[in-house]
Amino acid sequence: MTARRRGTTRLITLAALAIVAGLLAGCGNALSVSSSGSAQSITLYSGQHPQTTDKLVAAFEKQTGITVRTRSDDEDVLAQQIVAEGSKSPADVIYTENSPALEFLQDKGLLSAVDQATLSKTPARFSSPQGDWVGVSARVSVIIYNPSLIKASQLPTSVMQLADSKYRGKLALAAGETDFQPIVTSVLHAHGQAATVRWLQAIKANAAGHIYPDNETITSQVNRGAAALGIINEYYWYRLRAEIGAGSMHSKITYFAPRDPGYVIDVSGAAVLKSSTHQAAAQRFLAFLVSKQAQEIIGRDSLSYEYPVASGVTTAAPETPFGDLQPNPITIDELGDGSAAIALLRQAGLL
Amino acid sequence: MTAPAAPARPAVAAGPAASRVRRPARPVALTATATVIAAILALPLIFLLIEASGSGLSEDSRLIFRELTATLLWNTIRLTVVVTALCAVIGTAAAWCVERTDLPGRRIWAVLVVVPLAIPDFVVSFGWASLSSWIAGFRGAVIVMTLAVYPLVYLPVAASLRGADPGQEEVARSLGTGRVRTFLRITLGQARGAILGGCLLVAMVLLAEYGAFEIVGYQTFTTEIFTEIGAAFSLPAACALALVLVLLSLVVLAGEGLSRGRGRVSRSGPLAQRVSPPQRLGRARLPVLAGFVLLTGLALGVPIAASVYWMTSGVRPSLTGVPLLAAAGYTALYGALAGLLATLLALPVALLAVRHPGGLARRLLERSTYLVLAIPGVVIALALSYFTQRYLGGFAYQTGPLLILAYAIMFFPLALVGVKASLARAPVSLDEVARSLGQTRLAVALRVTLRLTGPGLVAAFCLVFLSVITELTATLILIPIGVQTLATQFWAYETNLSYAQAAPFALVMIAVATLPSIVLGRFFNRSADPRMVT
Fold this sequence. Notes:
The complex is a heterodimer.
Chain A lengths: L1 H29 L10 E6 L3 H15 L2 E6 L2 H11 L7 E4 L2 H9 L8 H4 L14 E12 L25 E2 L8 H11 L1 H14 L8 H9 L5 E5 H11 L7 E3 L10 E8 L6 H11 L2 H8 L7 E2 L23 H4 L3 H9 L4
Parallel strand pairs in A: 1-2, 1-3, 5-6
Antiparallel strand pairs in A: 3-8, 4-6, 4-7, 4-8, 4-9
Chain B lengths: L27 H27 L2 H8 L2 H34 L5 H7 L8 H11 L5 H13 L1 H13 L2 H9 L4 H30 L2 H6 L4 H10 L4 H27 L23 H29 L10 H32 L4 H9 L8 H15 L8 H11 L1 H13 L3 H9 L4 H30 L2 H6 L7 H9 L4 H29 L2 H4 L1
């Protein structure tokens, strides 16, 4: 009897195991897209917006016959994922909205050097000084405001004036957004540590109740009148307009005074992973991104609303021409990976 | 009886069969299986320790013992306490009304009150946040989270009330005990384990919540963890903070264990289960009905209205994505397989906990499996990236099966609560009776244990399924390239301001969620049929 009981239990256990195994094996065949790419395919980890990447990827595939398999996520998570994956990372190329994620991976020694020919297409000030990533496009920080809540004449001309108590309850802020750190770094560079922390504390108080997770939220909240003004990168405003139509835009954008610390260019770039087993194809993708064809797609033929920066391509209306912008002349190197800005944001209690 | 590797055999503590002399066998195979499962569930914890130790003790302590931590701690604790209490009241009251009273439209309510669980937190909070700027901070977080997670209490409580013996209530009433006192002393007593289990889940889920708090602008440990990863690129710092979350969840677990330990879990013979006439609500009927309308109106109406508004506010589709049906198919497939896997994995752990209690080591083993619920999904996914790439040569990485395993790990505690609650209702003595009547072990398993635990197993499956539908952060890291779930495609549109394209995905998520809710309702109705039980 004991033997029979044991046998039956074992039978049940085995059956359960078989079901689990079958389940896993079954999904392996039925569900999985093979994780190992062929020679004719590269894997792209993209933190960029699909408005920018979709057409670029399609054009590259058409031109080269190389398939691009895209994984989209926030770029900071992608950067951490690459670190966690280590030397076996499936990623060949990483393409980000902002430079700090690339600087972070570069500091970890995880990036290959970009081909010299590719680097030469982009003005040196928009690429990694070390040459491990290349700048592809750029954006500029602007003031977004809702004219029904604040008059244009009341707007600040400098980002430093946002600390003024007259903006209390009116200002929207996304302190955790990667686009905000370059502004903090820029202010730090212009005014020093103590003044920057005081400034941060003041704008934190002014933005109480309007601290948002990202620029997209600032854009839509200011547009619908939940807050009066905020700082965003210009393309969010254009994209919202493309999405909901000019008739539904209740907000406007404007610039800080020339060379103000709040007037900052953010660079989007791409890099090849050192661990990639498709170095040549990956480098081709980077070369394509800065080619005339790709830059024209960014500047004219997509809903990206980013500024092309390479191969001499300039953007079309409606944006202010890139050459007419008068940003704070802070360098990529000075912007770094944003760690100094993070420390100050923490000190001010914003992070 | 000398076989050292004797397979799992329930210890005979009491009951009709106890007279047959048998020493309680050590459940060796069961313990071994449960240990392996607990070890898999510990992987994220090990990853946390590896990463946090990478930045050094002084750096970690600087991070943990800074001014912000006090704020985070206060924010996290007060939110957890308030929302858990609200969920306990709402979930229990709703379950009692649906299961035990003559509330009109019970079957429909039984489905509707569960659905909010499957509305993504970011949809709920965006819906609320766009209603009014009043919905922000602590207030906003309490409203949004209570309406999103009360079904975690409702489901186990409804299952336990459905199975409990109504005779006890009748006896109490016949002895002159008032209606309220009967409810407090008898009904709540019967549902005590389920209420505590549900509260435990709510508290743990709150600790790891991110999307909702981000939108309503409420800072907790988990939002800070995302900031560390997002803005500071500091995974070690994020992991050090996540360890604080683990400590907090240990406190929650200890608290739950203590309150469970006091008092006896009332367990009537399941064979006494029968349909009793529902309690009449009488004059309370209208107010109760109004309460249900209000609850589902707020929990479902706001996010659905927001989705419909988005859908109609867009001008034109600007982005390409996968078709709605494909995303729905993958979501349902992943959810179903994860639900199945999690329930299967939960069985040995639950069996060990319910049928072989005692022994500190075994208790700790079972309790340890809850911790994973308080770890943010992004950390769990990165842990799996780390281990599969480093130690398994990338085997199955970013494939369906690994994603399903990730879901099963993340939502294991949800399954465990369901399975445990149902096993508790199937006393081992019944197995012994059946066996003494000459039934084989397999027949006992199928005809007695499975039948009695069935509703609980289905509840476990559904809880996991519903949670998978809305999972985003881990999915983005582990999903096969080219595949989208409803949540990831929604995110891809929503995060790029393409609200009109995002909205249908939110609505389909809600629609997919109603399926298990309906199944759940039907299954319970059937199992309550006396012919099915006896």
